[in-house]
Amino acid sequence: MRISDNPLRGQQFPAALLLAAAALGLLLANLATHDGIADVLHAHIAIPGTGLDLSIEEWVADGLLAIFFLVVAIELRHELTHGELDSPRKAVQPAIAATGGVIVPIAVYLLIAGPATGEGTAVGWPIPTATDIAFALGVLAMFGKGLPSAVRVFLLALAILDDIIGIIFIAVLFAHDVNWAMFTLAVASVVVFAVLSRVVAKNGSSGVAVLMGVVGVLAWGFMALSGIHATIAGVMLGLAMSPVPSEKTRHALEPTVNGVILPIFAFVAAFVVIPPVSPAELSPAFWGILIALPVGKIIGIGIFGWLSMQLRPKGTEPALRLPDILAAGTLGGIGFTVSLLLANLAFADDNGIRDQAILGVLGGSLIALVLSAIVVTARARSYRRLAAAVE
C-alpha cells in the first residue's frame, strides 16, 4: 500500500473509527462486561524508583494522549509559521470566530450549570470550548463535496485556535501542587530535545534521533511528576522540535495516533455507566455540556464569524457568507477528544458528575455531528447547483 493510500492518513476513516470506539466503550460499560473491563482499566502499573504509579486509564489519558498532543503541536507550529495562521492578517478572522466559539459556550454552560445551581458544577465551564479538528474535518470531507476551500481553511484555523485555548486551559486550570523542581527538569529536557532535533536536522544522525526519543520520554516523566498535566510535555516537545524532524515525526506517528491512540482513548473515556435516573435527575453539568457544545458553538462562531467578515477592504466581497460560517459553527460543536479530556480533568474528584459530563460531551458532539452533516450537505448541494448552472 502506498503511503498516500493509507486510510489512517485521511480524515473520514479515522473519524468513523473514533466514533465506533466511543460507541463500543459506552456499550460495554453498560453490559455485563463492565466489571471485568473496569478492573483492567483501574489496575495500576508503576515504574519502580520513579514515583510514577498510574492506573491503565491514567496511562492512556496522560501517556498515550501526550503523543496525540505532540502531533497536534507539530501541526500548530506548522500552521503558525508556514500555514493558515502565519500572519496576523490570516489569523484575525478565524481568531475572532474562535473567540466567539469559546465565550458563548462558556456562557451557555454557566447559565445552566453555574454557581446559581448550587451543584458545584461550575468548574466544568472549559469542557464545551473545544473543537475536535480530526472529527470536524472528517465530517466536512464526508459531506462537503463542492464547498469552497475557504470553508475548510476557516474551520481548520478556528479549530487550531480552539486547541491552543484548550491547551492553555489544561496547563493553567488543572495543575495541582506543582513541584517546581520537576517542572524545571521537564523544561530543561525540552530544551535539550530541541537542541538534539536541530542536530538531527543538520546531520541526520540516527543515534542522536534515538537520544531525542529518550530525552522526550524523560520530559514527559518529569512533567507527570510536576503536577502539571503530562500531555503538556507533548505540546512543548512538538513546538520545540526543528521543522524537518518534526514533519518526519508527524508523518510517522499519524497512522498510530489515528488508528490506535485516539480510538483507545475514546473507548476508555466513553467507558461510563449511563445512570438509571430520569432526565430531571441528571446533573446540570450534563445538560450544560449537551446544550453548550452544539448551540453555543453555532451561535458563538456564527455571530463572531459574521462580525469578523466585516473586517475587509471596502468594496470587496466577504471570504465566507453567513450560511457557510454557520456550517463551520455546527462542525465546531463536535468537541469529542479534547472535551473528553477536559471533562475527566474538571470533575476528577467526583466520578458521578464526571461520567455524566462525559455523556454530555458524547451527546452534544453527536447532536453537532448530525446538525453539521445536514447543514454541510445542504450548502455543498447549493454550491454544486451553482457550479452546474455556470457550466
TrEMBL record:
<feature type="transmembrane region" description="Helical">
    <location>
        <begin position="325"/>
        <end position="345"/>
    </location>
</feature>
<keyword id="KW-0472">Membrane</keyword>
<feature type="transmembrane region" description="Helical">
    <location>
        <begin position="180"/>
        <end position="201"/>
    </location>
</feature>
<keyword id="KW-1133">Transmembrane helix</keyword>
<feature type="transmembrane region" description="Helical">
    <location>
        <begin position="285"/>
        <end position="305"/>
    </location>
</feature>
<keyword id="KW-0050">Antiport</keyword>
<feature type="transmembrane region" description="Helical">
    <location>
        <begin position="260"/>
        <end position="278"/>
    </location>
</feature>
<feature type="transmembrane region" description="Helical">
    <location>
        <begin position="153"/>
        <end position="174"/>
    </location>
</feature>
<protein>
    <recommendedName>
        <fullName>Na(+)/H(+) antiporter NhaA</fullName>
    </recommendedName>
</protein>
<feature type="transmembrane region" description="Helical">
    <location>
        <begin position="59"/>
        <end position="76"/>
    </location>
</feature>
<dbReference type="InterPro" id="IPR023171">
    <property type="entry name" value="Na/H_antiporter_dom_sf"/>
</dbReference>
<keyword id="KW-1003">Cell membrane</keyword>
<dbReference type="InterPro" id="IPR004670">
    <property type="entry name" value="NhaA"/>
</dbReference>
<dbReference type="Pfam" id="PF06965">
    <property type="entry name" value="Na_H_antiport_1"/>
</dbReference>
<keyword id="KW-0739">Sodium transport</keyword>
<comment type="similarity">
    <text>Belongs to the NhaA Na(+)/H(+) (TC 2.A.33) antiporter family.</text>
</comment>
<feature type="transmembrane region" description="Helical">
    <location>
        <begin position="357"/>
        <end position="376"/>
    </location>
</feature>
<feature type="transmembrane region" description="Helical">
    <location>
        <begin position="122"/>
        <end position="141"/>
    </location>
</feature>
<feature type="transmembrane region" description="Helical">
    <location>
        <begin position="96"/>
        <end position="116"/>
    </location>
</feature>
<feature type="transmembrane region" description="Helical">
    <location>
        <begin position="208"/>
        <end position="240"/>
    </location>
</feature>
<keyword id="KW-0406">Ion transport</keyword>
<keyword id="KW-0813">Transport</keyword>
<keyword id="KW-0812">Transmembrane</keyword>
<keyword id="KW-0915">Sodium</keyword>
<comment type="function">
    <text>Na(+)/H(+) antiporter that extrudes sodium in exchange for external protons.</text>
</comment>
